[in-house]
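re the bet — no i am not wrong, look at it urself. input seq straight from the record:
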Amino acid sequence: MSAPTLHILRHSPTGNASLATCIRVLASGQSVLLIEDAVYALLPGSAGLNSLSLLPGEIRLYVLQADLLARGLALDDLPPRVEPLGYECMVELSVQSGKVVSW
């Protein structure tokens, strides 16, 4: 069995359809990593966060901690299922994934 796909989102969900498109193609066991402006999908009360919260539990959610903090978002506001990662862990996650799709 091959390792699951990692989907890396980098664009703001308000100015780009990549989050919605990615959500439509996600399969069980895959992972989503939010980097750069895609971290705005985690703003409390946002449509992006609502969409992510509706994903099945088998889909793992990650955020690059440095990008989250650089944009003024608090770690305390993260939903429990979203795991913040440092650069080293992001690279490890990418290497361990069977396929990486960048949006």
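see?? Helices lie at 18-25, 47-53, 65-70, 87-96. told u. also The chain has a mean pLDDT of 94. so pay up
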